């Protein structure tokens, strides 16, 4: 019967088109003419009873005594058998006339057929009279496309099923997060504690709650998936209200409160099952003679905040009527909204959102890597301090500009979010009411209408708030007709996955206060307050309302945003709001989000580094030391040892020769010398002659050497041959160099640029002397101290290795080129000469620690030049006497910050500025960023170089005016850092090493740290490579530790193990697509990683692995169907193949329908490939839902 009903319902326009197509359409008529005519025609004429045809005013009335009308016998027969049926009579009866051509059928044959038909009708009548007969069919459910099998399955489980609705995207999203939470804290499990005054009649309150369920169908739903995996909600005619009652009336108020809190905690921990209605319960707790707490607990998928006052008003009225809903005004149902929603042009709306998000390069994440599963409790809250006068001013500004207060709050958050994340194109979420004006009385409906949508805001520091507010208002208006779109589909349009992790919630729903007051009065009790307990999967929400003036608060998840950080954010948001109120036409970049005290701390206290420095040159200081300790060892190279007297004399002789050849102040001399004692002599000689040395490493490529010599235009080039001459005829006293001062040029070091063209950095004596004075204070040396020199003189840090000992009375132990390349040789030098101070890059320290950590006993270790990995810091700390992390670009005289490494809790900081140095962490508008926020590092003070030799344009772009100290310059490093609470700096990487993969901004150092945390990895480097147009991939390069575990340390298995290792620690977009195992990481002559020498990985496409078992065949088919792909391999990641959360829910439904196995959402997210899911199959439970079986016709 259901099948015939659906067939009839499926005939377009009751079949009127059949004759039109057969006889009046030339194209289709010829096709249909070949088909036979029907042999039986059935004409049901309807009901002709008194009830159906009441008497008319003019006297006409129905005659109920006639039977079914029959066709005239003279008419031609339309078929072998014609049946005309109608319902007639005072007591309605079905009657029928059977007409037939006597030459075709006999009366007996027709009688037999009629008797069989009557018997069938009687059987159907008996069937529909039986208990449980009948039921819904697909045509009864116009809002969903489901099969009869689905309906039958649902009716067996829920006999009271009366309708099926689609789940809205928002409902599906909320339920998804609940499923993902599993048995842990459910952020969308809402608990509302209503404070009730007056004597509460428990029976009446329970009846009122039951009547509330009966009145609103949206509260009587269960959420399930159909056999295609689509989520729907089953509407039941009636469900029993889960009700509990407790009496906590006791003389001890403290005990009662404690008991109430325990009860509430237990209630909140008791989760709802989405497929078991209702997803709502009530608990009445008596706490006093005229006080009670009514606890309404529900899943957020049932209703939104707008619905809450409507429910409260209905509940009070129903309490007053004893549960009689007939005395309440009629209410429209949630299905009206769903009907409207089904008629929207979804494709056009998605195109509108695609246009809105076009060009968006990356998500905006305030708490990158925050795990939605990690919610451990409810939200913490605090108020944003908006003074009343500011709130009133904001109202006036909004009115003058014709924008809403919601727009004002969103604009303020956009600007602050940009400052906190270093973005000028930001996205955050916003809730919209979702109640369209096109749906009659939508404001009075109960249900979940609210929706979360992305808000995109683009601005530059020069824009004004006026322009920003009007633009934001216009964008809202343009998208108003598309507010019904689901967030997962919108995010899919952007192609970036999750777009944001913060939300702006502006509560502006109307509250019928008069109606609530009347309801309270009629009920004889009063709801005096509400204590909500809600949650969210977002780390932070900006919640606001404007009743009567603006109030703003922050709701945050403490596991991701601690209270101190939240308070900082609240204060900064208040400052942005105050700036809008004060002058909306001011540039956005002028808004100060730092408080005066905080600004003074960052710019003043952290930079209070002023120290007296002698106004001397390097030769002045060296000669003073040579006079003080003339016979002490100054330089040790191989088997040669020079005392201070010898070194000074030889340098003086060479200096006279240089002066003789025209060298003087501000003239450069290129030193193309190998590592030797003569190299140190030549450096000192150039400085004594008043010139500036330009080191040229003979091992550098010839093209680079030629460029340096051409660009520097030295007055002289000193090579090995030049120093073989006899200098004995020259005086061994210092030449008299006129006009020598600390401001004159000391050296020019060529450093590689981002374009690959070297650039010469010019540094004066004053900068070098300041640096060495600071280092001498931090690392005091005595005559017995020895410093190992391992760095090429072409790298600026070599100046520390040479000059710090020579200006302090210690000795330089210069390693040969061969020694530097051999860890054993370096270890031998350290032990043989009693070296007490060594400076090196992390690469050098890694080789020493790995080879012979014992040689570092008693050694003070200086680390710099590259990021300092945490594991190396820990290992070095165990071996060396003292470890210091140093940071500084060549453009600021070697090292600018320093930090003593005491613990290895993560990567060590780069510390605080050295003497007479200032460091600023600034945003794009050169405003200081708050502590903890990533910004670019700028360095000012005595160490700042003159600039780049012969490159005025480049110099002007990197050496810029210091906005905080008039008349001073600062150097823009291009390095990303952030302040720690203690005033030290964390180094995060180069701005140009910050790459984007799949739209996400990634710090390569963070991925490198994850690789290094694997026990088998000794060194790691990560880079981004272009695998093709628009296809950028992360590639990891590692050196395996010697003596690793068998198998895992091999180049065959280690890459896969490392990818899994990183995937367990970082988001999937930060997992390298390939890991290459190398015998060693290639280094530049300066000891830094040579990224250009890293080999390209083999990205040869590998054929997808086919399914190996029937189960995997089924899973592969279901994966492909849900993703809309032709096929999928067992190793293909569902989410990397285009899947998202709601598609995952659909797939889980399909798997359940076909295999009878429930896959928990959390399990699926942890095992998103067919191969991985198969490994967990035996652990998965069989679904409580009956497995669907394919139906065949018999």
Automatic annotation (TrEMBL):
<feature type="domain" description="Carrier">
    <location>
        <begin position="1106"/>
        <end position="1181"/>
    </location>
</feature>
<dbReference type="InterPro" id="IPR000873">
    <property type="entry name" value="AMP-dep_synth/lig_dom"/>
</dbReference>
<dbReference type="GO" id="GO:0008610">
    <property type="term" value="P:lipid biosynthetic process"/>
</dbReference>
<feature type="region of interest" description="Disordered">
    <location>
        <begin position="1089"/>
        <end position="1108"/>
    </location>
</feature>
<dbReference type="InterPro" id="IPR009081">
    <property type="entry name" value="PP-bd_ACP"/>
</dbReference>
<keyword id="KW-0677">Repeat</keyword>
<dbReference type="InterPro" id="IPR001242">
    <property type="entry name" value="Condensation_dom"/>
</dbReference>
<dbReference type="GO" id="GO:0017000">
    <property type="term" value="P:antibiotic biosynthetic process"/>
</dbReference>
<dbReference type="GO" id="GO:0005829">
    <property type="term" value="C:cytosol"/>
</dbReference>
<dbReference type="Pfam" id="PF13193">
    <property type="entry name" value="AMP-binding_C"/>
</dbReference>
<comment type="similarity">
    <text>Belongs to the ATP-dependent AMP-binding enzyme family.</text>
</comment>
<dbReference type="InterPro" id="IPR023213">
    <property type="entry name" value="CAT-like_dom_sf"/>
</dbReference>
<dbReference type="InterPro" id="IPR045851">
    <property type="entry name" value="AMP-bd_C_sf"/>
</dbReference>
<keyword id="KW-0045">Antibiotic biosynthesis</keyword>
<dbReference type="GO" id="GO:0044550">
    <property type="term" value="P:secondary metabolite biosynthetic process"/>
</dbReference>
<protein>
    <recommendedName>
        <fullName>Carrier domain-containing protein</fullName>
    </recommendedName>
</protein>
<dbReference type="GO" id="GO:0031177">
    <property type="term" value="F:phosphopantetheine binding"/>
</dbReference>
<dbReference type="Pfam" id="PF00501">
    <property type="entry name" value="AMP-binding"/>
</dbReference>
<dbReference type="InterPro" id="IPR010071">
    <property type="entry name" value="AA_adenyl_dom"/>
</dbReference>
<dbReference type="InterPro" id="IPR029058">
    <property type="entry name" value="AB_hydrolase_fold"/>
</dbReference>
<dbReference type="InterPro" id="IPR036736">
    <property type="entry name" value="ACP-like_sf"/>
</dbReference>
<dbReference type="InterPro" id="IPR025110">
    <property type="entry name" value="AMP-bd_C"/>
</dbReference>
<dbReference type="InterPro" id="IPR020845">
    <property type="entry name" value="AMP-binding_CS"/>
</dbReference>
<dbReference type="InterPro" id="IPR020806">
    <property type="entry name" value="PKS_PP-bd"/>
</dbReference>
<dbReference type="GO" id="GO:0043041">
    <property type="term" value="P:amino acid activation for nonribosomal peptide biosynthetic process"/>
</dbReference>
<dbReference type="GO" id="GO:0003824">
    <property type="term" value="F:catalytic activity"/>
</dbReference>
<keyword id="KW-0596">Phosphopantetheine</keyword>
<dbReference type="InterPro" id="IPR006162">
    <property type="entry name" value="Ppantetheine_attach_site"/>
</dbReference>
<dbReference type="InterPro" id="IPR042099">
    <property type="entry name" value="ANL_N_sf"/>
</dbReference>
<dbReference type="Pfam" id="PF00668">
    <property type="entry name" value="Condensation"/>
</dbReference>
<dbReference type="InterPro" id="IPR010060">
    <property type="entry name" value="NRPS_synth"/>
</dbReference>
<dbReference type="Pfam" id="PF00550">
    <property type="entry name" value="PP-binding"/>
</dbReference>
<keyword id="KW-0597">Phosphoprotein</keyword>
């Amino acid at each position: 019967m259901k099948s015939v009903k659906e067939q009839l319902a499926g005939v377009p326009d009751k079949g009127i088109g059949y004759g039109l197509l057969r006889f009046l359409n030339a194209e289709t008529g010829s096709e249909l003419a070949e088909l036979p005519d029907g042999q039986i025609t059935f004409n049901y004429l309807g009901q002709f009873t008194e009830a159906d045809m009441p008497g008319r005013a003019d006297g006409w009335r129905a005659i109920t005594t006639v039977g079914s009308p029959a066709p005239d016998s003279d008419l031609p027969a339309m078929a072998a058998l014609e049946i005309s049926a109608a319902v007639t009579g005072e007591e309605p009866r079905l009657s029928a006339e059977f007409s037939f051509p006597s030459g075709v059928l006999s009366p007996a044959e027709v009688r037999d057929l009629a008797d069989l038909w009557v018997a069938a009708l009687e059987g159907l009548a008996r069937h529909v009279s039986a208990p449980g007969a009948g039921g819904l069919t697909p045509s009864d459910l116009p809002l969903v496309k489901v099969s009869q099998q689905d309906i039958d399955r649902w009716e067996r489980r829920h006999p009271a099923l009366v309708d099926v609705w689609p789940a809205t995207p928002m409902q599906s999203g909320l339920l998804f997060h609940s499923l993902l939470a599993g048995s842990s804290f459910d952020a969308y499990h809402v608990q509302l504690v209503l404070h009730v005054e007056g004597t509460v009649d428990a029976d009446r309150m329970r009846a009122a709650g039951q009547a509330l369920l009966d009145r609103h169908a949206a509260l009587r739903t269960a959420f399930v998936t159909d056999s295609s995996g689509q989520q729907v909600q089953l509407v039941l005619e009636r469900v029993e209200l889960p009700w509990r009652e407790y009496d906590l009336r006791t003389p001890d108020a403290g005990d009662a409160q404690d008991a109430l809190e325990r009860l509430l905690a237990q209630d909140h921990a008791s989760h709802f099952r989405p497929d078991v209605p209702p997803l709502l319960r009530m608990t009445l707790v008596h706490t006093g003679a005229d006080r009670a707490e009514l606890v309404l607990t529900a899943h957020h998928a049932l209703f939104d905040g707008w619905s809450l006052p409507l429910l409260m008003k209905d509940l009070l009225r129903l309490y007053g009527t004893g549960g009689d809903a007939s005395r309440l005004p009629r209410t429209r149902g949630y299905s009206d909204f769903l009907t409207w929603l089904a008629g929207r042009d979804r494709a056009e709306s998605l195109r509108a959102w695609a246009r809105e998000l076009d060009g968006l390069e990356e998500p905006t994440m305030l708490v990158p890597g925050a795990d939605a599963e990690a919610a451990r409790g409810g939200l913490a809250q605090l108020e944003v301090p908006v003074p009343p006068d500011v709130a009133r001013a904001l109202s006036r500004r909004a009115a003058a500009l014709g924008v809403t207060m919601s727009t004002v709050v969103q604009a303020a958050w956009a600007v602050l979010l940009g400052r906190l994340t270093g973005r000028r194109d930001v996205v955050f979420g916003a809730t919209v009411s979702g109640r369209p004006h096109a749906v009659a009385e939508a404001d009075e409906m109960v249900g979940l209408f609210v929706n979360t949508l992305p808000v995109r805001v683009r601005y530059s520091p020069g824009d004004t708030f006026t322009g920003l507010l009007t633009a934001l208002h216009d964008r809202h208006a343009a998208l108003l007709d598309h507010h019904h779109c689901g967030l997962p589909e919108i995010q899919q349009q952007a192609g970036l996955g999750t777009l944001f992790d913060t939300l702006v919630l502006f509560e502006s729903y109307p509250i019928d206060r008069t109606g609530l007051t009347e309801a309270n009065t009629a009920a004889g009790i009063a709801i005096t307050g509400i204590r909500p307990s809600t949650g969210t999967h977002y780390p932070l929400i900006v919640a606001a309302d404007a009743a009567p003036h603006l109030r703003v608060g922050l709701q945050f998840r403490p596991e991701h945003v601690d209270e101190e950080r939240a308070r900082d954010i609240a204060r900064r948001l208040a400052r942005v709001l105050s700036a809008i109120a004060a002058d909306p036409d001011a540039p956005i970049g002028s808004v100060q989000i730092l408080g005066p005290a905080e600004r003074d701390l960052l710019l003043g206290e952290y930079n209070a580094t002023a120290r007296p420095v002698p106004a001397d040159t390097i030769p002045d200081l060296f000669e003073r030391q040579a006079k003080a300790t003339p016979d002490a060892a100054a330089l040790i190279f191989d088997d040669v040892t020079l005392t201070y007297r010898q070194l000074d004399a030889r340098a003086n002789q060479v200096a006279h020769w240089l002066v003789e050849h025209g060298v003087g102040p501000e003239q450069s001399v290129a030193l193309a010398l190998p590592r030797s004692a003569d190299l140190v002599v030549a450096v000192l000689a150039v400085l004594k002659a008043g010139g500036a040395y330009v080191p040229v490493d003979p091992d550098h490529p010839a093209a680079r050497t030629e460029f340096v010599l051409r660009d520097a235009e030295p007055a002289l080039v000193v090579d090995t041959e030049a120093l073989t001459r006899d200098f004995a005829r020259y005086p061994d006293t210092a030449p008299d160099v006129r006009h020598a001062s600390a401001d004159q040029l000391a050296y020019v070091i060529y450093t590689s640029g981002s374009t690959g063209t070297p650039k010469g950095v010019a540094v004066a004596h004053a900068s070098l002397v300041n640096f060495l004075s600071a280092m001498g204070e931090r690392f005091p040396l005595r005559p017995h101290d020895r410093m190992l020199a391992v760095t090429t003189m072409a790298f600026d840090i070599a100046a520390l290795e040479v000059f710090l000992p020579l200006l302090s009375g210690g000795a330089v132990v210069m390693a040969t080129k061969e020694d530097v390349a051999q860890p054993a040789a370096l270890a031998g030098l350290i032990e043989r000469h009693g070296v007490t101070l060594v400076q090196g890059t992390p690469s050098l320290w890694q080789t020493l620690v790995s080879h012979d950590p014992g040689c570092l006993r008693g050694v003070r270790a200086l680390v710099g030049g590259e990021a300092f990995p945490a594991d190396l810091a820990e290992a070095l700390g165990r071996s060396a006497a003292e470890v210091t992390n140093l940071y500084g670009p060549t453009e600021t005289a070697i090292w600018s910050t320093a930090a003593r490494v005491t613990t290895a809790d993560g990567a060590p900081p780069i510390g605080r500025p050295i003497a007479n140095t200032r460091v600023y962490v600034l945003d794009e508008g050169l405003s200081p960023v708050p502590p903890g926020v990533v910004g670019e590092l700028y360095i000012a003070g005595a160490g700042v170089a003159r600039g780049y030799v012969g490159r005025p344009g480049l110099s002007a772009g990197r050496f810029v005016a210091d906005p905080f100290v008039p008349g001073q310059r600062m150097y823009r490093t291009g390095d990303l850092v952030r302040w720690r609470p203690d005033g030290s700096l964390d180094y995060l990487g180069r701005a140009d090493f910050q790459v984007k993969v799949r739209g996400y901004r990634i710090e390569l150092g963070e991925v490198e740290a994850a690789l290094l945390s694997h026990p088998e990895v000794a060194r790691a480097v990560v880079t981004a490579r272009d695998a093709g147009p628009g296809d950028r991939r992360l590639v990891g390069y590692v050196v395996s530790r010697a003596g690793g575990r068998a198998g895992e340390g091999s180049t065959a298995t280690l890459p896969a193990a490392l990818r899994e290792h990183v995937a367990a620690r970082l988001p999937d977009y930060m997992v390298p697509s390939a890991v290459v195992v190398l015998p060693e990481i290639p280094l530049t002559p300066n000891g830094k990683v040579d990224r250009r020498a890293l080999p390209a990985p083999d990205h040869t496409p590998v054929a997808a692995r086919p399914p190996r078992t029937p189960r995997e065949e089924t899973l592969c088919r279901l994966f492909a169907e849900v993703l809309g792909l032709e096929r999928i391999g067992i190793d293909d990641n569902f989410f990397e193949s285009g899947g998202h959360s709601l598609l995952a829910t659909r797939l889980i439904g399909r798997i359940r329908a076909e295999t009878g196995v429930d896959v928990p959402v959390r399990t699926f997210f942890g095992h998103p490939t067919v191969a991985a899911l198969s490994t967990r199959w035996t652990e998965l439970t069989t679904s409580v839902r009956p497995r669907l079986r394919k139906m065949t016709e018999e």
